[in-house]
């Protein structure tokens, strides 16, 4: 995608944040309201990113997990696939208003990652860095939720390049911009470090039921 298009997309999304686009001013309860406020259900799976979809062959793929941890690791593809495999079914909620139910993800659970790398007592935040230069941040507590995965498959099929394959984060309780596609580096930090959209008007947390679209 041309740089001009990308700049325009970024400018448009920043303008939406400034204008508070799509805000309903209501909140929902995830226990009783499966669809968060202001969302609509879709059957398809839209593609959203900055327009650069990096092609990372599995032979070249590496994932480094480091920062405020006792045991940093770098996995190649075989080492990643040799980790205990987890499966979880969850819903996707994109800040541009669409939601998609019942996505079956397979991959390595973030709880396994935490057990392995052993965050130090100072670690409180996690930043994802991707092969396209994208970054996004979550709290360590959010990262540690039981439904979070570094996923390689969706509904039993390897995740395609357009959706972040060979591997992407899945953080189901937050808007989908927190789920970094093409992940290459997971960094544990003592201090929070807002990511690409978080410094461009999007909420630092991003809970759909609280409609934390912008902030
Ligand atoms: N690496 C990377 N991850 C990313 C993005 C991106 O541009 N680059 N876009 C985010 C946004 S804004 C959304 S809505 C989702 C879209 O995921 P999908 O294309 O699989 O629907 O990816 C998120 N993860
Ligand atoms: Mo998004």
List the helices and strands and how they pair.
Layout: H1 3-19, E1 40-41, E2 62-67, E3 73-76, H2 77-81, E4 86-93, E5 98-109, H3 110-117, E6 125-130, E7 135-139, H4 140-143, E8 149-154, E9 157-158, E10 168-170, E11 183-189
Parallel strand pairs: 1-5, 2-11
Antiparallel strand pairs: 2-3, 4-5, 5-8, 6-7, 6-11, 8-9, 8-10
This protein binds the ligand Nc1nc2c(c(=O)[nH]1)N[C@H]1C(S)=C(S)[C@@H](COP(=O)(O)O)O[C@H]1N2 and molybdenum atom.
The ligand Nc1nc2c(c(=O)[nH]1)N[C@H]1C(S)=C(S)[C@@H](COP(=O)(O)O)O[C@H]1N2 is lined by residues 45-50, 94, 130, 132, 134, 163-164, 176-177, 179-182.
Q: How big a fraction of the residues is strand?
A: 25-35%
CATH superfamily: Oxidoreductase, molybdopterin-binding domain
Mean of pLDDT? 96
The CATH topology assignment is Sulfite Oxidase, Chain A, domain 2
Largest sheet composition: 6 strands, mixed
Number of DSSP strand runs: 11
What is the correct CATH architecture? Alpha-Beta Complex
Helices and strands, in N-to-C order? HEEEHEEHEEHEEEE
- Uncertain runs are none
